[in-house]
Structure formats: C-alpha cells, structure tokens
Specification:
By secondary structure, this protein is an alpha+beta fold. About 40% of the residues lie in helices and about 25% in strands. It is globular. It has one domain: 2-Layer Sandwich (60s Ribosomal Protein L30, Chain: A), CATH 3.30.1330. Helix 1 crosses helix 2. It is built from 4 helices and 6 strands; from the N terminus they run βββαβαββαα. The strands form 2 sheets. Strands 1-6-4-5 form a 4-stranded mixed sheet, sandwiched between helices.
C-alpha cells in the first residue's frame, strides 16, 4: 500500500480549454498537478501493474468542486509515476471522500489487488469515515 499526501488546498480538475493549437488546462491546475506528481515520485517505489484500488481523501475549504473532479485531478497527478505505462486504466476500484474541514490537503492511497489488501483498504476507509477523519489528522501529524 502506498500513500501520497499533498498538503494545501486541493484543486479539482477543471474543464480544459480547447483551441486550434490544442487542449489547455489553467496554470493553477498544472502547477498543483506538478507538485502532486513530485510528491508521488518520492512516495511510489515501483509502478503498480494493476488492477489497482485507489482511495482519495480530500479536505477542502471550498464548497465547489465535485468529488469526481477531485478524483480526476488525483489520478492525473500520479498516473505517470504510479502506474505501469503511465495509464490510469489499471484502476479498477476508486473511493473518493470530500470533506469541508481543516487541515487542507489530499491523501491518495494506491493498493494492488489481493483479498487481504482490499480488506485492509476497506477497513481503513471505514475507520476514517466513522471517526471523523481522526486517522487522517494523526497521519498528518506523524508526517510533520
């Protein structure tokens, strides 16, 4: 199991701007994605072959941004580092939790499939949700 923590305000994936010259995303999104990619590069040892389960826990102060857009930004940020071939098609299970609480940040957990690994990930998600993100906060303090 690999966990990547990106501190600060998470950025949901915006709609791209399409022109004759190509497809462009806003600069603030590209900057966030680059920062998240650097953190993923440090955290991920070997790229995962798949199938992969991904958990995205988002702490934000904004009322905008759909959970699926946060999931898209998380997968876009880590796909070239975390997945063999740089493709997020290996993701078979995706869990996204979006909360408007402090401290701001995004935690991405990647886990290759096995029965034991899926049980551990499901248990972790249930514990975090049931305890008001207490485990998430403890994880942040442990990294400081």
């Amino acid at each position: 199991m690999t966990t990547i923590y990106i501190p600060g305000r998470p950025v949901p994936c915006p709609r791209p701007r399409v022109t004759k010259r190509g497809v462009f995303y806003p600069n603030h999104y590209e900057a966030w994605k680059a920062e998240a990619g650097l953190r993923a590069n440090v955290a991920v040892g070997q790229p995962l072959r798949g199938p992969v389960a991904v958990s995205v826990l988002v702490n934000t102060d904004a009322r905008y941004g759909d959970a699926d857009n946060y999931a898209k930004s998380a997968l876009d940020a880590v796909q070239h580092v975390a997945f063999v071939g740089g493709d997020d098609r290996v993701v078979s299970d995706l869990y996204v939790s979006r909360r408007c609480i402090e401290p701001l940040g995004m935690e991405i957990t990647l886990n290759e499939h096995s029965d034991a690994a899926m049980y551990a990930m499901a248990r972790r998600i249930i514990e975090r949700t049931a305890h008001g993100m207490a485990g998430f906060l403890a994880h942040i303090e442990a990294q400081s």
